[in-house]
Design goal:
single chain; mainly alpha; two-stranded antiparallel ribbon; two-stranded antiparallel sheet; 11 helices; about 5% strand; extended; cell membrane; ECF_transporter_component; ABC/ECF_trnsptr_transmembrane
C-alpha cells in the first residue's frame, strides 16, 4: 500500500542548481600534464606498430642510418641543402604512415624555445657584423658599454639572421631524424638495437627498466591522488598541496626501492643474466642492406657537397 504523501505531485518546475567549478589544484594540473605526456608516448607506440616504410626495416639498420644522417647534417653549411634534408624527413614520415601534424608538433614544440634562446644574440650586429637589415637603435659614433665599442646603429644583420635560420633548421632536421627513429621503432626493439651497436649493457638495461616501470609508478601516483581527493571536503591551499606532494615523493621512493629489489630477485630466479630478450627475432634482409648502403652513401654525398668536394 503506497501512502498518500508519496502520490502527491508538485506542478512547479524542478529547481536549478548552479555548480561552480574552481581552478584545478596544483596537484591536478601537474598530474594532468604528466598523463598528457605519457598519452602521447602511447600514441608513439601505436605508430611503431603500423605497416609503413621505416617500420619494415631492421631496427639496427634504422639506428645506424639515423646516426649517420645526423652526423652529416651537423656538418652541412648550406641552408637550402638543410631544407632539402628536412623535407626528406617529412616525406619519410608520410611513407611510414605517421601523421605529419603530429610529427611536426613533436619537433617544433620545443625547438623555438631552446634554439631561439641560443641563437637570439647571433642575429644582432654586435655579435655578427654585416649588412644591416633591420635597424633598431641608433647610438651614434664612439658609443660603448663597459669598454665594449658599440656600432653606430644597433640592429639585425642579414648575415646574423641567415646564421640563426641555418642553425635552427639544422637542429630541426637532426631532431626530426631522431623522432622518426623513435616513432617507427618499438621501444624494446630500439633497446636491442642499442645493444647490438655496442652500447654497454648496463645503460641499455637501465633505460629499458625505466621505460617499463615508469607507467606503473604513474598509476600508483594517480591512485594516491584520487584517494586524497575522495577524502577532501574543501580545497586546500597551494602550500598544503606542495607539502602533501613532498611526503608522497618520499613514500614513492621507498616503494620504488622495495619494488626494484623484488623485481630483480624475480628476474634472477627466472634465469636473467643481464641481456635483453625479445620475442621477435630480427634478421637482415636485402632491403635492409640496400637501405643501409643508400643512407650512408647519401650522408657522405651531403658532406662532400657541403664542402664543395662535389659540385652539382
Amino acid at each position: 500500500m503506497i501512502p498518500d504523501w508519496l502520490k502527491e505531485t508538485d506542478p512547479r518546475p524542478p529547481g536549478r542548481f548552479d555548480v561552480k567549478r574552481g581552478r584545478k589544484s596544483f596537484i591536478g594540473k601537474t598530474l594532468g600534464d604528466m598523463f598528457s605526456f605519457f598519452g602521447e608516448t602511447l600514441t608513439s607506440e601505436n605508430y611503431s606498430r603500423r605497416n609503413g616504410l621505416l617500420q619494415s626495416l631492421d631496427p639496427r639498420v634504422k639506428l645506424a642510418s639515423i646516426l649517420a644522417l645526423v652526423v652529416a647534417v651537423t656538418m652541412i653549411k648550406d641552408l637550402y641543402l638543410l631544407i632539402f634534408v628536412y623535407a626528406l624527413t617529412l616525406l619519410f614520415a608520410g611513407l611510414s604512415k605517421i601523421s605529419i601534424g603530429f610529427f611536426v608538433k613533436r619537433v617544433w614544440l620545443f625547438i623555438p624555445i631552446f634554439t631561439g634562446i641560443i641563437v637570439l644574440p647571433v642575429i644582432f650586429n654586435v655579435v655578427t657584423p654585416g649588412n644591416l637589415l633591420v635597424p633598431l637603435v641608433t647610438f651614434g659614433p664612439n658609443a660603448s658599454i663597459g669598454g665594449i665599442l658599440l656600432p653606430e646603429t644597433f640592429g639585425i644583420t642579414t648575415q646574423g639572421l641567415l646564421t640563426a635560420v641555418t642553425f635552427t633548421i639544422r637542429v630541426a632536421t637532426c631532431v626530426s631524424a631522431i623522432v622518426l627513429l623513435f616513432l617507427s621503432t618499438p621501444q624494446e626493439a630500439l633497446f636491442k638495437a642499442f645493444r647490438a651497436l655496442g652500447v654497454p649493457k648496463v645503460y641499455v638495461l637501465t633505460l629499458d627498466m625505466c621505460y617499463r616501470y615508469i607507467f606503473m609508478f604513474i598509476d600508483i601516483i594517480r591512485d594516491m591522488f584520487i584517494a586524497k581527493k575522495s577524502r577532501t571536503i574543501r580545497s586546500e591551499g597551494t602550500f598544503a598541496e606542495q607539502k602533501w606532494v613532498t611526503g608522497r615523493i618520499g613514500y614513492t621512493l621507498i616503494k620504488t626501492l622495495d619494488m626494484s629489489d623484488k623485481v630483480h630477485k624475480a628476474m634472477v630466479s627466472r634465469g636473467f643474466n643481464g641481456d635483453i630478450k625479445i620475442m621477435q627475432k630480427y634478421t637482415m634482409k636485402m632491403r635492409d642492406y640496400i637501405a643501409l648502403v643508400t643512407v650512408f652513401g647519401f650522408s657522405i654525398f651531403l658532406i662532400m657537397l657541403s664542402y664543395n668536394i662535389i659540385k652539382v
